[in-house]
Write a structure and sequence with these properties.
3-stranded mixed beta sheet; 15 strands; hydrolase; dimethylargininase activity
């Protein structure tokens, strides 16, 4: 297995908090340790650097506690960046901040016509875009994704509110392989996944419940929550090298390694 060097965008959780509840993971009455969240995030960033990836950072904005989840900031493929439109007003102001970063970095910009929560719901898998819908990103946005990026878009219907974004229920391991939780998808979407990826890795509910599928793969190394031990064992059996990281504090807002990480495909280096 060959690893692909990646260019990644992250946002330090300087203002991380759980002040509202927009997914089942969030409980504003539960204590949150912002300093621990920062330390865990820094370990994730260092893990990427140790693997040889380039990590760029967007400046966090006060009052936007979920801005740390950079995957929701856009979709960036072949030098084109699709900005986002959030479903929930609590996150709306993240969209222009990320859009400005992409524009300054030299990406060709496109604005969404419908609710579209970025790479949280849009994953490039070989020659296809897998696009989630059901809780956040609108199905109507999928046609625009196909027009902008020129990849066939395959709709994935999510059915479990705990797995509200596609990247909480499925991870792309390489151009031919994915891992996913079958129960998170409608029967029709499960059938499509079986047809597209007959050799996929099936995660258990126990691993999904620690956001084990919210992972980042470079084709050889898979960075995933340390608590997802069964999934890690299955991946090692397939020849992948797994690296467990503890993001338990950020999980209180429903985020894991992938939520914190946006893949930047082409485009000039940011200033």
């Amino acid at each position: 297995m060959d690893a692909t060097s990646q260019r990644l965008l992250m946002c330090r959780p300087t203002y991380f908090a759980v002040d509202y509840a927009i997914n089942p993971w969030m409980d504003p009455t539960a204590p949150v340790d912002p300093a621990l969240a920062i330390r865990q995030w820094e370990q994730l960033r260092q893990t990427y650097r140790d693997l040889g990836h380039t990590v760029e950072e967007i400046t966090p904005v006060p009052g936007l506690p979920d801005m740390v989840f950079a995957a929701n900031g856009g979709t960036v493929i072949d030098g084109k960046a699709m900005a986002v439109q959030f479903r929930d007003p609590q996150r709306a102001d993240e969209a222009p901040a990320y859009r400005a970063w992409f524009e300054d970095a030299g990406f060709e910009m496109y604005d969404p016509k419908h609710v579209n929560e970025g790479e949280g719901d849009v994953l490039l898998a070989g020659d296809h875009l897998l696009a989630g819908t059901g809780f956040r990103t609108a199905h109507a946005s999928h046609a625009q994704l196909q027009e902008v990026f020129g990849y066939p878009v395959i709709t994935m219907q999510l059915v479990d509110p705990r797995f509200y974004h596609l990247d909480t229920a499925l991870t792309v391991l390489d151009e031919q392989t994915v891992a996913y939780l079958p129960e998170a998808f409608s029967p029709g979407s499960q059938a499509v996944l079986r047809r597209l990826f007959p050799d996929a890795v099936h995660a258990t509910m126990a691993d999904a419940e620690v956001l084990g599928l919210n992972a980042v793969s470079d084709g050889r190394h898979v960075v995933l929550p340390a608590q997802a031990t069964d999934l890690a064992a299955k991946l090692r059996d397939r020849g992948y090298e797994t690296i467990g990281v503890d993001l338990s504090e950020l999980r209180k807002a429903g985020g894991g390694p992938k939520c914190c990480t946006l893949r930047l495909r082409q485009g000039k280096a940011s200033k």
